[in-house]
Amino acid sequence: MLTVSNNPWDMTARPMVMLKRFAPAKVNLALHVTGRRADGYHLLDSIVVFPAIGDTLTLHDREDGQGLIAITGPYAHRLSAEGDNLIARAAYLLSDAVDRTLDDLAVTLDKQLPVEAGIGGGSADAAAALHLLNDHWGQPLNADALTALGLTLGADVPVCLAGQSARMSGIGEEVTVLPTPPQGALVLVNPGVAVPTGPVFRGLDGVFGKGFGDLPALIDADWLADQRNDLERPAINVAPVIASALTALGATDGCQVARMSGSGATLFGLYPDQASADQAAAALRVAYPDWWIKSAGLLDAV
């Protein structure tokens, strides 16, 4: 954790902050699972957006006795800075690829997003770490090389590296930025349950659907309402509270589409504007004070 000094010029009391990077949540507005490869990876067709809700990573000088990763924030207790930490994996992967050392660097993660929530928190954090270190080292990898490296960490990392509204296909390696981003604002709701990805995908029982085909010029609420998240049914089997939360979210004033994101348990409601999203979030917080509820605009909406 960063050491705080009352003297802002006392650089012996705290490490110098070098770079910061926001790691926004990844929300699947629609997610069609179209098949499974022989190696077990599932094939997807998904529309992904990024709301102004997320974690923050800070790259700074490492203090004596400090490890590579420090974690703060309301969900810090759900993560370990040791072992299979995805930020650490990303950092070591990039340092090996470009032959640079991490000995004098540390990353502090302010963890604001729920864990195992279907909104790509770990992938977004890994993508932010890759961007931070690549920038710090003078961008030795171009965007394509960084994306290829990110894919080895997880299927959601490439789209999180792009950080724009996009169509994500294949196992996650095919990312096509949408020429016209979806409009509106989101309410994100997590009813306080963590849903591991593995059991949800296994719950598909080998039954797959079709992809989107050609996309319309504008991804709007009417088009989205005709789409689906193929993981919603098996996720509800794992955590039935998801169904109740979907009903509550869909019943709020102004909600155009209510659906689960990713493999759950976080749900999103799409609203025409920020004001209606804020009002819906406020009403839900009164009715469900123990749920994680956030409203935000989309980062690349016009």
Question: What can you see in these coordinates?
Answer:
The chain is 28% helix and 25% strand. It is an alpha+beta fold and 302 residues long. The chain folds into two domains: 17-177, Ribosomal Protein S5, domain 2, CATH 3.30.230.10; 185-297, GHMP kinase, C-terminal domain (Alpha-Beta Plaits), CATH 3.30.70.890. The strands form three sheets. Strands 1-4-6-5 form a four-stranded mixed β-sheet, covered by helices on one side. The protein has a four-stranded antiparallel β-sheet with strand order 2-3-7-8. A four-stranded antiparallel β-sheet has the order 10-11-9-12. The protein starts with 16 loop residues before the first strand and ends in a 5-residue tail after the last strand. The model is unreliable at 1-13 (pLDDT under 50).
Quick gist of this model?
This protein is of the alpha+beta class and 302 residues long. The chain has helices at residues 86-98, 121-136, 143-151, 157-162, 197-202, 221-225, 232-238, 241-250, 274-287; strands at residues 17-24, 27-36, 42-49, 54-61, 69-72, 105-110, 166-170, 174-177, 185-190, 257-260, 267-271, 292-297. A hairpin with a 5-residue loop joins strand 2 (27-36) and strand 3.
Name its key features:
Ribosomal Protein S5, domain 2; disordered N terminus; globular; 12 strands; 2 domains; 302 residues; Alpha-Beta Plaits; single chain; four-stranded antiparallel sheet; four-stranded mixed sheet; alpha+beta
